[in-house]
Write a structure and sequence with these properties.
The chain is mostly helical. The protein has one domain. 80% of the residues lie in helices and 1% in strands. The protein has a two-stranded antiparallel sheet with strand order 1-2. A hairpin with a 2-residue loop joins strand 1 and strand 2. Helix 3 packs across helix 4 and helix 10 crosses helix 13.
Amino acid sequence: MINSLKVSNHKIIKFSYKRLIILILVAIGIYFLIPKLVGVKEEMKLLSQVKLIYIVLGILGEVISYTAAAFLLRLVIIRLKYHLRFKDLIRMSTVGTFALHFFPISGAGEATVNYYLLRAQKVSSGDALFVFIIRGIFLYLAFFLLFAAGLIITPIHPNLTLNQKIISIVLFVVIIFTTFWVRYLYHNKDRFWSVGYKFLGTINYLSRKLFKKSVFSAETVEIIISDIYEGFHKFSQKREDWLPAIGWGTIYWLADMLCLFFSLLAFGYLVHPGVLIFAYCLATLLGLVSFIPGGVGVVEGTMSLTLISLGVPAGLALFAVLLFRLLSFWLIMPVGLVSFLTLQAEISNNNSGGDSEDKEK
């Protein structure tokens, strides 16, 4: 099996077999442990009630989610005056998920893979980096808007405790503050550059401590911050793009939430919308900051406990979450791997063709 992706004379980070093995072992442990917690009798009863139609609808939700991610990527690419095949954008969306979970340094692995895939499509360095950043901004802006909506809806749910209501209000305030802070940074260029220098400087500091070398040179830092700010400026001039971009981001998250909704419905449980959004967003956030590949264990545990605390029967919540993770996480892995290998093969062929032409000349 091919271990790395090459573009020109550069290599992307190597595939982490160790991470794959650890991830599979943890997953096996979770999938064996939870039935023991539920009990064999209740397990068999729940499994006998599963409705196949809702599993199919859950898979459809995931298809819609990744299609929306590709449309968001397409919108950004077009506004930067590039044209990529939609088939490649779909594959890049699934590769991003694959890279996020199986390459070293988690989100940085996803960023690096997407960067080099875009570079292979003749996208300039600055634009390739900006594409990843602005796509992430629109995605997570949509995420936090949904989370805010969930926080507004959830406190009216009768099963929510006082502590959970307080946490909801605090998180909502943090979301509002963060939104206005980002807006403030953009409108204060000096402050934007200062924060950018500190952020990239922190990455360099950690890299020197861990690996004895910096990630970015001083010149690279200036180029990165300048390109990012210029990219923001371009999109601030095209406000008509904001709504569709946030719209595609919203569809991306909502379709994934629908997969969780149908996973619960597969066991006969109609969940309150506020509970669905709150449990999904809280588990997703904790999974992102856990630095565990794919948030395995963290997402399942947080989502299950949140659903249970908000009135969903324990056994049903556990099995519904496992089904959701199977459909949204594990099934995408082979798809992402195939996308990775096919894109890699095409890039290698294109590079070989270019090398042959150079030799003939």
